[in-house]
Amino acid sequence: MITGQWIPLVPSMLIEAGEVEQFLVEDKDVAVWRSMQGHVQIWENRCPHRSVRLSLGQVQGESLVCAYHGWQFAAEDGHCQRIPAQPDQRAPKSLCAKSYAVTEKSGMIWYGGDADYCADLPLEEVPFVYAGSVTLSTTLPQVQDYLSELGISDCVSHNRLVWQGHAKDSALRIYLTPTQSNVVTIHAMLLQEEHATQRHPLLNQMRQDLELEQLSYV
């Protein structure tokens, strides 16, 4: 498990204002949502009331509303703002959706887990456009070794989750999300002056090569 460091989770453009989606990161089920004012949140995907997935809920202004009983949780701290069955009562301060550290940079939403502090991301704020994702049944070290063999360099050396410098496409940047113990999601981004009209071909190549490698161990 990666602690105290940012993990790239999902391209920013995939979570628009008013949207909420479910993702896995390091075996955690999380709800990623963006308020109507554009503030992105990463929460445990469980309502503290009846444990219904918050990703089934609806964004209303700066709050996320659970789909089951309509409990409403505030973006800034996850505190329950409203209980429809008890409209005249204020929810206790301890009643909160569990939130995780989150930031946005270089076109990605980053997950910081429970850490009180995450090291700064040594990435220049360069505009990138999304060029597709692929989820593979493989391990993170296998993906990292594969990229290294292609001659791509890790540009955030402390966690080896960001790679750039492909010989055939210098504008390409690769982000790795460890979703489960043996599952990795790979995101491709291109410098904004490039045109990403379809999924980058390297993703298809990685799927073919790494899945064949996995089969060779069976």
UniProtKB/TrEMBL annotation:
Q: Where is the signal peptide?
A: none
Highest taxon in the source lineage: Bacteria
GO MF term (any one): oxidoreductase activity
Task: Kindly provide the name given to this protein in its UniProt entry.
Answer: Rieske 2Fe-2S domain-containing protein
Q: Does the keyword NADP apply?
A: no
Q: Which Pfam families match?
A: Rieske
Keywords carried by this UniProt record: 2Fe-2S, Iron, Iron-sulfur, Metal-binding, Oxidoreductase
